[in-house]
Amino acid sequence: MNPVSTRIITGDVARLVASYERVTGVAAAWANDDFAEIITPHSSLAVASERTVPLFSPGSARPATNDSAIIEFLVDDVDRLHRELADSVTDWVNGPTTMPWGNLPLLFRDPDGNLVNFFEPVTPAAVERFAGR
């Protein structure tokens, strides 16, 4: 099994996709007005309209209600991204602070309130854990 995608359900696909394009620097691949993906070499972040939910099961997902999941991106330089995103991110949760497991995170909320973490492994053990990813 290989996790390859995370999907966010939203009430405003264009707004949320534009936000992720801005913070990741990756242009979205659009299937239609209800579905787009930010595709990276190892996985994708899909953004879908709430109109797609009934295709799976009516009421099974609700936009802008995430209080438990964090969408994480492995990055090369957290401090540089923190500076570069200063004008485009409006809801910072924390600035770069090394965690006990060796990652340097940069945590913020996207326009729907989902937690997003750009992190950089900084200790030797963390660097080794993510080598080759």
Brief characterization of the structure:
This protein has 133 residues and is of the alpha/beta class.
Notable characteristics:
single chain; alpha/beta; Signal recognition particle alu RNA binding heterodimer, srp9/1; 2,3-Dihydroxybiphenyl 1,2-Dioxygenase, domain 1; four-stranded mixed sheet
Indicate the topology:
Blueprint (H helix, E strand, L loop, with lengths): L4 E6 L2 H12 L4 E4 L2 E5 L4 E6 L3 H4 L13 E5 L3 H7 L7 E3 L8 E7 L5 E7 L2 H6 L4
The N- to C-terminal Cα distance equals 16 Å
By CATH, the superfamily of the largest domain comes out as 2,3-Dihydroxybiphenyl 1,2-Dioxygenase, domain 1
Shape: globular
How are the strands of the largest sheet arranged? Answer: 1-4-3-2
Structural class: alpha/beta
Largest sheet report: 4 strands, mixed
- Quickly count the helices: 4
Number of domains: 2
Rg estimate, integer Å: 15 Å
> Which percent range fits the helix content?
10-25%
- For the residues shown, what is the average pLDDT? 95
- Share of residues in strands: 25-35%
Report on this model:
The protein has helices at residues 13-24, 53-56, 78-84, 124-129, and strands spanning 5-10, 29-32, 35-39, 44-49, 70-74, 92-94, 103-109, 115-121. The protein folds into two domains: 1-55, Signal recognition particle alu RNA binding heterodimer, srp9/1 (2-Layer Sandwich), CATH 3.30.720.120; 68-133, 2,3-Dihydroxybiphenyl 1,2-Dioxygenase, domain 1. It is an alpha/beta fold and 133 residues long. A four-stranded mixed sheet has the order 1-4-3-2, covered by helices on one side. The protein has a four-stranded mixed sheet with strand order 5-8-7-6. The model has no long low-confidence stretch (mean pLDDT 95). Strand 2 (29-32) and strand 3 (35-39) form a beta hairpin. The chain is globular, with a radius of gyration of 15 Å.
